């Protein structure tokens, strides 16, 4: 496929807000492609070059991109920055700059989707000394082959900011639409012209409908007697059922696609499987060791009673540790450690790797756990903030292991010789218990009990807090493991003042003694459409050290500068404490945090809390 044709799809996707329309645009894009191309297209439309589970990054910041644009456009850095300031988008900037240049030059070579993807992948592989200039050379070479519109999307792909509003749900639904029959209930079917299509009609609904549609001979099944999984996915274009069955079948198919994604964490694989092997293929997809899956997330509750209402009685009740989520993969004598963002941090945690090798008695498993750091002198728990130093560390790792040792607290298991995600949590925990050898001081099952008694939960919570942990988790004993979902199979109860996880979207260059540092952080929460809405500025109480860290993190993310004000790409998540939430016309969310303080950086989180959460906290104050 020519890249220019993909750009056509990008433009269509960008021009509608409707999820349904986006779904069908994507479904058109996916249909009729060969496997290789399909896999690439699925990634590219999600703004990815690699699969979600792959810990690889192209490693090009906005700053490097400006350098590449300088090379290819012939404009100076100053002019590029000027343009960038006015567009607020380096992709658009590239389009404008190259548009102007192209008027003076001729031929643009034809780019294919595969070529663009291959080139970008190759750029990610450059490492070590001189790699930055090689990256710049390669990107500028690719851009020089592109027409201005293509350049816009190449730049956006590299910077992972496609602005297309294509999330996981839309890709899942598009795969469903592209590779499975359309499912209609009888009422909808009346309005569709299905005469040219291969149709399967259930006997229950066919009578009246057929009277009017005599021209064609649909295949009629008694749907009730046909196993859904045996309906050949590519035999029919349309299946017509009564309303209840239509709904049932649709959600069955949707679950099959979702299952494929849950276990593989790779929509490319899911699309190719759906296309070639249908429902059976999807249901047969298996988890693979060393390919991390998304972690199940917790809902928040405010009281123990609400906790029991959500997860049922009796419930599993664990300490909630103030540490870092770690997914531990083990196969024979090999172990890998992944963060909640699915980054591979095995190198940073050789102590964890060693302990899992030694004390986990299984040749093939995936364990969900929390790593908790403690003070080597007195054994007391140290906060996550300190532990987070280990996550990105590339040197002096042994020293880190010694100064900030961790204890592994496993709380769930999602694979033991086969995937366990469909098994009940109570069963999973039993399996977990059976493979952890606890006679050591690095790995210990979570502190946990099973109870239906609120008083027991309360005293456990007091204990957890007095030991410096965060509170407790309550878990539904009968629930499956839902990767990536906040379904309420486990809930967290934190009695301390609620905090908000917010994304930094802007900042200000400081003045006076602190000039050269970015401060006064504009923080944003998220709305349903994925836009960031301001909820206030975090300006006071920042130490010099924090300001330095903030500057180091934010400077490469600057996308726009206006005097001292900068806008940054929304990538840094902070946990903010505050006195209260007020209504405010000043900020786009309509709320302002009073006296916000930076509690910590949330390197384990990718996204901000929702505007709903802000509104709920606002209400709960009164
Ligand atoms: P939060 O990050 O506030 O949404 O809380 C959920 C996080 O708590 C999980 O992602 C884990 O990293 C952490 N956690 C600590 N202890 C447990 C536990 N016993 N069970 C599950 N998650 C835990």
What this model shows, in words?
- The protein is an alpha+beta fold and 622 residues long.
- The chain folds into 4 domains: 3-168, DNA ligase, ATP-dependent, N-terminal domain (DNA ligase i, domain 1, Orthogonal Bundle); 177-268, no CATH class; 299-493, DNA ligase/mRNA capping enzyme (D-amino Acid Aminotransferase, Chain A, domain 1, 2-Layer Sandwich), CATH 3.30.470.30; 500-620, OB fold (Dihydrolipoamide Acetyltransferase, E2P) (Beta Barrel).
- Helices cover 41% and strands 20% of the residues.
- The chain has 22 helices and 23 strands.
- Strands 15, 16, 17, 18, 19, 20 and 23 form a 7-stranded antiparallel β-sheet that branches. A 5-stranded mixed β-sheet has the order 5-14-13-6-12, with helices on one face. The protein has a 5-stranded antiparallel β-sheet with strand order 8-7-9-10-11.
- Helix 10 (168-179) packs across helix 13.
- The longest helix is centred in the middle third of the chain and has 22 residues, at 243-264.
- It starts with a helix and ends with a helix.
- The model has no long low-confidence stretch (mean pLDDT 89).
- Bound molecules: adenosine monophosphate.
- The site of adenosine monophosphate has 12 residues, from strand 6.
